[in-house]
Amino acid sequence: MHETTDELVELQALLDASLSRSTGHLRSIVASRTITAAQLTAVLTGMCTLALSTVTASGEPRISGADGHFWHGRWVFGTARSAAKAGHLAARPAASVAHLRGEDLGVFAHGRVEELNPLGADPATDWAEVRTYLQELYGGDAFDWDTDVVYYRLQPHWMTVYAPDLEALLR
């Protein structure tokens, strides 16, 4: 868990607001089967496989996988700079992500990505910290962290969590 108290408060407000403005159908499924921001950050540790949805230039949806890391209440994920999804996100930064663990957990978010390590521009202020965390997981010499890969942070405007049994997630 990397979140500060303020980040947990912000994440909880996002989760509450997102659920309150969701459809009745979604609320009927999720409202009594969700967890708090603090519980979520305790569950989302290490690498979490994401289904990442982007959009092509002609408006067609594309979905692919990405290694996701929940970092300070936001999803961080990367890909090769030459990947199709990197091109989609450069042109159209809106994205959706989902992290699923069978029937025990579903985390769904929509938002816009920010590039953490853009070529030819200043990196995000916390890129060095994020890179250090990632290098500890993947190895510092796995590839050139500034040129071979591009990392993004999803700034969500909507996020909800389906978790019917917290104890099952913590086992």
Uncertain runs: none
**Class per helix and strand makeup:** alpha+beta
Total helical segments: 6
How is the largest sheet built, in terms of strand order? 1-2-3-6-5-4
Helix content: 25-40%
**What is the averaged pLDDT score?**
95
Distance between the termini: 17 Å
The main sheet comes to:
6 strands, antiparallel, barrel
Order of helices and strands: HHHEEEHEEHEH
* Beta-strand residue fraction: 35-45%
Morphology: globular
Cα Rg: 16 Å
How many runs of DSSP E, i.e. beta strands?
A: 6
Condensed summary:
The chain has 6 helices and 6 strands. The chain has helices at residues 5-20, 24-30, 37-43, 84-91, 127-138, 166-170; strands at 47-55, 61-71, 74-80, 94-101, 105-115, 149-162. The protein has a 6-stranded antiparallel barrel.
Give an overview in words:
By secondary structure, this protein is an alpha+beta fold. Helices cover 32% and strands 35% of the residues. The chain contains six helices and six strands. Strands 1-2-3-6-5-4 form a six-stranded antiparallel barrel. A hairpin with a 3-residue loop joins strand 4 and strand 5. The longest helix is centred in the first third of the chain and has 16 residues, at 5-20.
Give the tags:
single chain, 171 residues, alpha+beta, six-stranded antiparallel beta barrel, 6 helices, 32% helix, 35% strand
Question: What are the SSEs and their pairings?
Answer:
Layout: H1 5-20, H2 24-30, H3 37-43, E1 47-55, E2 61-71, E3 74-80, H4 84-91, E4 94-101, E5 105-115, H5 127-138, E6 149-162, H6 166-170
